[in-house]
Design a protein that fits this description.
By secondary structure, the chain is of the alpha/beta class. About 40% of the residues lie in helices and about 10% in strands. The chain has a five-stranded mixed sheet, sandwiched between helices. Strands 13-14-15-16 form a four-stranded mixed sheet, covered by helices on one side. The longest helix has 18 residues.
Length: about 525
């Protein structure tokens, strides 16, 4: 579209806006997998932070098309002579303001994600954004501070093509930026703008504030776009109400490192990049020009180098081990499976490994050891009774509060457990095995070794690729097997019902009392 084709009194984006697509229906709004970045002079002459930004978006989103545009490329994609368009502005916008206009045009026409060229992607979009946006089709982060005069954050936006919020904001922006004026509006700082209008901290105004400042000062705010969006949000309460309930994990360029670690996207600046916060982010995220291999792990854990040694993860064999309490797992912890050895803390669940490894979990296989629920309960009772006397951590305190009265006597304990299992089932060592690992919820390859079958290790050795692997389990509990089983037929039946999910998940349906060790 050439602007000269339009009537002199027509607003320059009218034809562009009229040709925009209709939005998909509410509730079925998949987001196009395209990411837009823009730097008017191109990547070659851009600051270092821009090149770093592009690297992060490409690294974490291989399933998306990442489009880095300079001015000429943006003109070709949009089919608009942007140079001619900018000459018709009646507001003296710099490149930051011009890019505001470009992002609205790209998202309104093609949809996808706009990321400022000074942002870092910290989490793959496929792991959070696409599910969140499917219903309403629009996303932006919102200012967390109640003292801010702005609702939205514009350096990361997502929209389906033709979305009402995007299109209406573009229309409102056109009305404001290309309004006939005798003299162009100049830009003033946010602080001066708020002071001139007497806007109190936390007071959020719309386009009316821009109009008032124009009348008073013949100036406008550097953040004009936020006031446009505020008016659009006010006019579409359903859309905004939905938006307010979406994720809001972001980090501004001044945020502390703990906020950065917990964010999905972060903002940097091309100014003053020598500041310590920026240096710390680079050290955490980059190894030379590329993203660190363990970045996602270190991102979520301040002391990752220490935490790494507490997790049963073999990067060489691509194996993780979920240690279900009282199933003989210590022999696995102490084995040669894990390069460098581990010093396990607690009993991390499979879901914790998924959180730690993020999208990299798909590269791994899972190993776990299980035990029939009756012997496991007996062993757990004796262990928990002893552990409660030794330590003051939360799990030990819970065990002491609930088990001391039974004096490490399994025969005394079992009837009370059957009568009121909910009283005991949250004690760490007595929790159902499926609460640590449930095969039905596992989406990676796994191998389950039954402790009762420790004399048949061929399949386990094949799984590990360790033909000489030995599983040396010795009883570590405080009480040896009883001369007579502590399980009566009624107790045996009741315990089977309490741990029915374990029985089913790990194939213990045919277990008999005669097979029990306790």
């Amino acid at each position: 579209m050439t602007l000269s084709e339009q009537a002199d009194d027509a607003l320059p984006l009218t034809d562009f806006i009229n040709a925009l697509p209709e939005p998909a229906p509410w509730g079925n709004r998949p987001l196009p997998k395209i990411i837009w970045l823009f730097w008017h002079s191109g990547l070659k002459d851009a600051p270092e932070v821009v090149r770093r930004s592009l690297t992060t978006w490409q690294h974490f989103n291989p399933d998306h098309e990442v489009r880095f545009l300079d001015l000429a490329e943006a003109e070709a994609v949009l089919g608009v002579d942007l140079q001619a368009l900018f000459e018709r502005l009646t507001v003296d916008l710099g490149w930051a303001g011009k890019s505001d206009l470009i992002r609205m045009m790209l998202l309104a026409k093609f949809g996808g994600v706009w990321a400022d060229a000074t942002t870092f992607c910290l989490k793959p979009l496929s792991e959070w954004l696409h599910d969140e946006i499917f219903v309403n089709g629009f996303f932006c982060f919102r200012w967390a501070s109640k003292l801010s005069d702005r609702d939205m954050i514009s350096w990361f936006l997502a929209s389906i093509p033709g979305h009402t919020l995007t299109v209406r904001s573009l229309v409102r922006s056109q009305d404001f930026l290309f309004k006939r004026r005798d003299q162009n509006l100049t830009i003033m700082s946010s602080a001066n703008f708020l002071r001139a209008l007497g806007i109190a901290p936390g007071e959020r105004r719309g386009i009316d504030a821009l109009k008032k400042c124009e009348n008073l000062k013949n100036k406008t705010s550097y953040f004009w776009m936020f006031y446009v969006f505020k008016t659009v949000f006010d006019n579409h309460p359903k859309e905004y109400a939905y938006l307010e309930n979406l994720s809001n994990k972001y980090a501004q360029h001044t945020c502390a490192i703990n906020v950065f670690r917990d964010s999905y996207v972060s903002k940097q600046t091309y100014k003053d990049v020598s500041r310590e916060i920026y240096k710390t982010r680079l050290e955490l995220m980059f190894d030379g020009e590329g993203i660190r291999a363990d970045f996602q792990e270190s991102l979520k854990n301040v002391n990752w180098s220490k935490i790494r040694k507490t997790l049963a993860i073999s990067y060489e064999r691509k194996v993780i081990f979920v240690h279900i309490p009282k199933c003989g797992g210590t022999s696995i912890d102490r084995s040669d499976i894990f390069e460098g050895g581990i010093h396990r803390h607690g009993h991390p669940k499979f879901l914790y490994f998924k959180k730690i490894l993020g999208s990299n979990i798909s590269q791994f296989r899972l190993l776990t050891l299980v035990r029939n629920p009756w012997d496991r309960l007996a062993s757990a009772f004796h262990w928990a009774s002893a552990e409660a006397m030794k330590h003051d951590h939360e799990d030990a305190v819970m065990a002491r509060d609930h088990l001391t009265e039974f004096e490490d006597d399994l025969i005394k304990f079992l009837p009370e457990f059957c009568k009121n299992s909910q009283r005991f089932i949250e004690i760490l060592w007595l929790r159902p095995a499926v609460s640590f690992f449930d095969p039905a919820q596992c989406d990676i390859p796994y191998f389950i070794q039954k402790l009762e079958e420790k004399d048949n290790l061929g399949p386990l050795r094949q799984f590990l690729g360790m033909p000489d692997f030995q599983l040396g389990h010795e009883r570590a509990g405080t009480t040896a097997p009883l001369a007579k089983s502590a399980f009566t037929e009624e107790v045996f039946r009741k315990v089977g019902e309490i741990y029915a999910a374990d029985v089913q998940a790990f194939g213990y349906q045919d277990t008999t009392m005669a097979q029990l060790k306790y």
